[in-house]
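Changelog entry

Holo records now carry the ligand SMILES as an explicit input line rather than a separate metadata file. Below, a converted record for adenosine-5'-triphosphate, shown in the new format.
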Amino acid sequence: MRYTLMHKTIPVAAIEIDQVTNVISNVWELYRPEHLPVGVLRDNRPLKNSQFLNEWWLERTIPASRSGLREALALMGVHSTRVLLLKCFGLSLSDHYWVCPADGTLQWKDVNFFENEFSEDVGNALFGRTGGAEELNLMSPDNTSDGWLKKQWVIAEGKRMLLKGGSLPAYQEPFNEVIATAMLSRLKIPHTPYTLTWNGEQPLSVCEDFITTETELVSAWHVFETYKKPNHVSTYQHFLACCDTLGIPGMREHIDHMLVLDYLIANTDRHFNNFGMVRNAETLTWLGPSPIFDCGTSMWHDQFTAQIRPAFKIPSKPFRSEHNDQIGLASFDWLDFNALQGIDEEYGEILKDSSYIDDERRSTLCFALKTRIQLLKARIGTHLEGEQ
Ligand SMILES: Nc1ncnc2c1ncn2[C@@H]1O[C@H](COP(=O)(O)OP(=O)(O)OP(=O)(O)O)[C@@H](O)[C@H]1O
Ligand SMILES: [Mg+2]
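Structure line, unchanged by the conversion:
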């Protein structure tokens, strides 16, 4: 069936979406190549077929790794996440792309989730809840949400908010988001503030949509893919070169901030879709890095207490595989350790709210955070002495 790929109100391409597989099987006509999603055009080459556009399209589905996905699909009576993608016309709350049936009867102002209300049926199903309604309304921004943790967009007091769960053994991710928020705010680093809420016994993190009716999030991965990485160039250098070529301001400083935070909280999952940049969706002007988000996969969230060893090697992403190496890419002239004084005690207070975290784990985690700060301080001290 024919659709128009839309960027807000701008028709970008006439496309074919196969009604059985839901893939983009053809690009009939390209109207506005500059408005294609970032990363679809590689090395400034013209679009030869639908391959890269289809890859982008299918990346918009809920990932197969999403916790509880099979049960949620069963609750909704839907056989695949691709079906959900078309039910909401590919609309999301992180960018302004969508597909409009070619009869042209739909308009952005009537369908977008930034200005229109949406159903909570999909979000409820993703959390394993049924609303009891006979027929579910599947028009939801949850159909295009990324990431493996259970999550749901809701509207609270007119604001679009993302609720996100945690995972075994301690459901610690929401608490980690909150301590990362405290650290970032003390260090005066732009970030998405997270708070805590509860779904019965389950802790959830809550953050507000940092995207608006004017702006959109582009993942670092899509920027990284814009140009082919030469073999002799590191991922770090290539990424910054892509940002420079595209004219995205402030990325080096942003990466410094992110690498320091991730070292301190022992974040093991800062992959290229866990940070990004923001641009104006109409003018395509790059505004700069997105506020830091998704810091929950840290502080040994997936380890038993006995395995929490802050001075050991800790896996890192996205530029190096180990934090001790990755932190070597950062500069620290902006870093004020005094601002972090007592942060371990603040972490302890935050963790007290969890019935999944006992006293032993809590004190081990607080000690681990303090140790990471001391390790970085010592490392920077040695580095500076070496320079003199
Ligand atoms: N506050 C926000 N405003 C707009 N978009 C957001 C916001 N928070 C998250 N997103 C988008 O939703 C995606 C999924 O959210 P998030 O990364 O927090 O989930 P996750 O399950 O923790 O991911 P992962 O699998 O990387 O651990 C993000 O990659 C981003 O594209
Ligand atoms: Mg993520």
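Spot-checked after migration. The chain has two domains: 2-114+132-138, 215-387. The chain has twelve helices and eleven strands.
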